[in-house]
């Protein structure tokens, strides 16, 4: 069959070539006999013909039959080669298509049996159903700890959650992994020492839902569990998501290989990393030296589990003692004092300062706060320095340096926060020797692909110098900015974060900048009205978390009184003539200005709320003011 086809192609090729040969001048001499008879021509004639034809090119006067035969044979060979090649290609193509068809059937079969191996739909209910099927049918076979996360956030607090939301807002398909040492997904810490203690819901400890001062109910968790993607599914979901790996701790960072090692030995590689490790509550040397019995009866208040445990303990014991007079200690004292009035629980608060929040508030306001907390049912002991703590006869015995002794059932240490910087050694990151925390640049970067936010970040404030801040608003804003910069932005951190503290629903304050009682202050106060309370403030704003919801732009058009002719002497006169409020006065509401080199560097708004943009602008301007009484009018403190 092949030979017949080849001969047919040869004849066809010959019919095509003959006209071409004649057109180019090739001429064939008629030779008697058939073609084979030419091979028995005498040698002399062949030689003569060859010599004659070799004088010029084929097609001349010589015989070109040999050349014609050569062309025909070449054409025949080419035809055979083309035919064979096409036949082999067809066979290979058929075989390839058969193989692909077989593989497709196998893949379809596997996909029906294991839908986790297929693609997840991008949107609509189908996406949700497929993710659900994926989670139920395939997640168990995947490792809990993914080997790679494009965006790795170390720490499960407010800063990490704010960064995750910011990353997803700028990159909707981003895969974000949060590694948390806690049992819970990210949550708000402020209610743990405020509203939750005032809840009338007996199930608040289980639900962790509370009523804000304005009566609205909410959860401490930023998002419900359905918001998050399973850590097993994170690498496979088409549109990415945020996953939280709980009860894990990063113990080592390899910044060259972009990898971290967890306490269980697993490793995770990353492209961008945020360190938001926060801090750990400090203890007292006297407690650390005391031994196991004392430490088992001491709460270092920080996490959800600490709130749950302390809520239970205060129902079981007869006496608790809070060590610390700062924000946390004073808030817990007010919260537990309310329980003391209801149940007879003895609540003691002791601290080395002369009054509550003595490191923050001017002396007269600190003393007023102390009296306020005493009225809440708390036995406040200022100027108390703990020398030793021991356990005997079922009680904790606290020995003070001035000789006083206190017996109690349980201790609560609220003496500050130590930034978690253990990763600095393995990562080769710099820790600030004065303020603690990881030193970062204006964009919150510690290295080219590592950012730091929240309590653990030591940043440079262009107005106030290098700082480290331990407040909710700073965690929100720094986390948000770090997330933006992790997705390509290059924004500097210029935000002046605020913080607030509530001594129950009736007294509270908001502050910004450097609020240090060692600085000179000027206070301007007025009579308060019924709406000048934290409860009224939340009713107006609609939220109990008075974080940064207003922007600097809202205050950009505010004109702050300032006279260019005001000299240092006039400013000094203002400070000299500013009279501190008399002891015992009722400080209904007011503004306290903190000054450094005669410039306002900090402001406390006492029972004045939702005016933070004005305070922020005053600090941002960084100017001397001839009369701070005029500046105080910007806060409408004399409104009825």
Structure notes:
The protein is an alpha/beta fold. Helix content is 34%, strand content 21%. The protein has 17 helices and 28 strands. The strands form 7 sheets. Strands 1, 2, 5, 6, 7, 8, 20 and 21 form an 8-stranded mixed β-sheet that branches. Strand 7 (259-262) and strand 8 form a beta hairpin. The radius of gyration is 42 Å and the shape is elongated. Residues 1-7, 16-62, 103-136, 548-557 and 562-580 have low confidence and may be disordered.
Identify the notable features of this structure and list them briefly.
34% helix; 5-stranded parallel beta sheet; 640 residues; single chain; alpha/beta; disordered N terminus; 8-stranded mixed beta sheet; 17 helices
List the helices and strands and how they pair.
Layout (H helix, E strand, L loop, with lengths): L1 H22 L19 H11 L11 H49 L10 H14 L10 E7 L3 H13 L4 E5 L24 H4 L1 E3 L5 E3 L21 E5 L4 E5 L4 E4 L4 E9 L3 E3 L3 H6 L1 H4 L2 E3 L3 H13 L2 E5 L3 H17 L2 E5 L12 H13 L3 E3 L4 E7 L2 E6 L4 E4 L1 E4 L3 E3 L3 H5 L10 E2 L5 E3 L2 E3 L4 E5 L3 E3 L4 H15 L11 E5 L5 E6 L7 E6 L7 H8 L26 H10 L11 E8 L2 E8 L5 H10 L6 H5 L8
Parallel strand pairs: 1-2, 1-8, 2-5, 8-21, 10-17, 11-12, 11-17, 12-13, 19-22
Antiparallel strand pairs: 3-4, 6-7, 7-8, 9-18, 14-15, 15-16, 20-21, 22-23, 24-25, 25-28, 26-27, 27-28
